[in-house]
Amino acid sequence: MKRETIKKNRIHAAEKKEYYTEREKYWARLEQEADDAEAMKIIRKKHITPEQLALFNSLSEKEVADMIAARDKEVKQTPPDEGGAFHAENEKETNENAKKVIS
User: Fold this and answer.
1) pLDDT of 48-58, one tens digit each?
2) Where does residue 14 fall: left (phi above 0), alpha (psi -120 to 50 degrees), or beta otherwise?
3) Domain chopping of the chain, boundaries
4) Tens of pLDDT along 49-99?
5) What is the DSSP string of 49-97?
6) What is the gyration radius of the CA atoms in the chain, in angstroms?
7) How many helices (H) and strands (E) does the chain have?
């Protein structure tokens, strides 16, 4: 190849690279906007106040994990008559006992 052709192709490739870099930035920005819109939809649906959102943003991942673990522990300790985790087990036992009585 001639030197001029190589230089011309190199310039053309650089222009294409710049174009696709800009396109990638454009699509990344649109993706971020879509994520933000989805988050806002959830915030509005759940009626989360700005104060609650600020509090949530200030919590660390460990604090959130601890809160979830505490809630799960509390749910497991809920008595069966209040619809706790044991409710399904008791319902299954009741169904089995009913089948025995019917048979």
Assistant:
1) 899 988 888 88
2) alpha
3) 1-58, 60-103
4) 999 888 888 888 888 888 889 988 888 877 656 555 555 555 555 555 555
5) -HHHHHHHHHS-HHHHHHHHHHHHHHHHTS-GGGT-THHHHHHHHHHHH
6) 30
7) 4, 0
